[in-house]
Amino acid sequence: MLKITKYVVYDILRSKVLILYTAFLGIASMALFNLETDPAKAIISLLSIVMIILPLVSIVFSTTYFYNAYEFMELLVSQPLQRRTIILAQYMGIGLCLVLAYVIGVGIPMLLFAPGEVSVILLFAGIMLTLSFTAFAFLASVLTRDKARGIGVSLLLWFYLAILYDAILIGILYAFNDYPLEKVVIGLAACNPIDLARIMVLLKLDISALMGYTGAVFQEIFGNGLGIAMGFVVLTLWVLLPLWLSVRIFRRKNI
Amino acid sequence: MIRILIWFSLLLHGSCLFASDLEVGRGKGFSTLQSAVDKAKPGDRILVYPGTYEAINLKIEKPLTIEGKDWPVLDAKGKDDGIAILCSDVTVKGLVIKNTNRGSLKDYAGIRVFKASNIVISGNQLINAFFGIYLSDARNVHVTNNKLKGEAPDQSSSGNGIHLWQCANSVITGNHITGHRDGIYFEFARHGFIEKNVSEKNHRYGLHFMFSDSNIFHNNQFVKNGTGVAVMYSTQIQMLHNDFAENWGGSAYGILLKDIKDSHIRGNRFEKNTTAMYVEGSSRVKVDSNRFVSNGWAVKLLASCQQDTFTCNNFIANTFDISTNGTLYMNYFQQNYWEKYDGYDLNRDRNGDVPHRPVSLYSLMVEKMPFMIFLLRSFIIDLLDTSERNVPSLIPENIVDVTPRMKELELND
Question: N or C: which end of chain A has fewer CB within 10 A?
C-alpha cells in the first residue's frame, strides 16, 4: 500500500500543477500579509481563499488525476492486490500532496505572520477541507467512467457546497423565519463541510459578534472548547463518509 | 479673677480650635472605636491602630477625622451598616470595612453618608459589603482611591459599589470596584467628576446612571462587566478618554445610551465588546475621536435617535460597523475612518471620493433574524453585500459618510 502511495506522490510531484498551486497559495498569502497592516484582516481574506479556492482545486485536481491514472489502476487491479488497498493508497497519495501544498503555501506564512489560535484553527480546517474534497473527488470519479462527466459531477458538487448551499440556506431561513430555527441552523451548517469549517474559524475570529446571539443552544455548544472538538469530529466524518462510499463502489465496480 | 476667666474661656475655645488626637488600639487611649467617637469633640482626629474592631452602624454625628494606620479592620459582622456619616466635614481614611448585612428591605452599606457635605472618603478598603459607599443627599463628597470588593455570588444578592442618590458636586477618583452589582451607580446626581476609576467584573453594569445631568467621566476603565455600562435619561454628560472593553453577551454593551441629550463622547476606546455602543432615543450627542476596535457591532444606532453626529472616529476590525432598525434617519457621519471602506482618493485631500455606506445588507438581515449570524463571512453574503453597496436598494440611503477618511486617524490627545 505504501509503495503505491509513494509512487503516486512521486508522480504528482513531478507534474508542474501542484507546484504551481503551492506557489499560488504562497504568493497569495505572502501578498496578503505584507499588504495588510493588520494580520487579522489578512486572515479574513485567507479565509475566503480557503473556503472557495481550496475545495475547488482539491476536487478538480483529484478527479483529473484519478482519470489520468486510470490505466495504472487497471494494471494494479490485475495484480494480487485488494481493491480497497489500491484506492486508499491512491487517495493517501493525492491527499498528502494537496495537504502538503496547503501547509507550505498557506500554513507556514500564516503561522509566521499571525501566530495564534485563529491561524491554527484555520490551518486544521483547511487540511480537513482538502481531505474532504479529495474524498468527494474520488466519489465522483468512481461513479462514472467518463472523464468529462466525472469532472462535471465534481464541479457541481463544489458549486453546490461552496456557493449554492448558503443561498438555499438563506432562502429557507427567510421562508421559515417565524419559527425557532436555532437548532435547525446548526444542524444544516453541520451538513456542509465548508460551512462547518467557516463557523469554527469564526468562533475564534468573530467571537464578540457571535456572543451577541443569545440562543441557549449556541451558548451550550460553542461557549466552550467542546464546540471546536465537535466540529472537528463532524469534519472527520465528512472525510470518511465519501471515502468509505467510494471504496465501497470501487470494490464492486466493473472496470 | 477676670484674668482667670479670660484664660479659661481661651482654653475652652482652644480645645475646639486645636483639635486633639485620640488613639484607638491595643494599649492606646481607647480600646474600641465607639468609645473614641463618643468621647471625641468636634474637629478631633481619631487614629485607629491595627486590630479588628466592631463597627456595627457606627454613627458619626460630629465633624471628625478617622484615620486608620496600617489597615485596621472594622467588622460589621453581617449585622448592619459599617459606618454611618450623618454630619458634615467628616474624613474617613485608611480603614478596612468588612461584612455588612445584606437584605432586600434596607440597603446596608460599608460607609453610608446621609444629608452631609464636605466629606472625604479616601484610601479605604471595603470587602464583602452589600453596598460599598452609599451617598444620599450629600454635597461635595470626595471618594478617592478606595478599593471595593464585593463577594456576593450573583446580581440579585449584591449591591452597588459606589452608590449616589441625590448628590451634587461629588468627586469620585481612583477607585477600584469589582464584584458588586453596579460598579458606580448614580441617580439624581449632578455636577459630578468621575475620574480614573476602574470598574471591572461587576455582576451587572460597570457604570449605571439615570437622571444625572452634567457629569464628567474621564479616564475610567469599564472592563468585563456582566452587561457593560448603561446610562439613561440625562443631559450634558461628558465622557472623555474612557475604556470600554470585553463586555460580552447578548445584552452586554460597551455603553448603552438611552435618552441622553446634548452630550459629548470623545476619545474613548471601545474594544472587544459584543456591542460597543447602543444608542436609543438620544439626540444631539456628539461622538468624536473614539476608537472602535474588534467589536461585534461598533454602533447600534436606532432610528429613534436624532441629530447625533459621529465624526473622526476609527472603525477597525469590527464585525459590523453600524447597524440600525429603520430607514428614516437624521444622524450624521463625517470624516470617520472605516477600515471596510474600499474607495479611492484621486484629489489627495485625504478623504475618499466615493461615499461610504457603513450599514450592510447583511447587518440588516441579522438585525431581523439573529440566527443569520451563522452565515457570517460566507461567500454568498459577501456577494450580496457588495452588490447592495454598489446599487443600494434595501439599505437606508441616508446613512452615509460622504467624506470617509483614507487613513486611520491619530487619536492621541
Answer: C
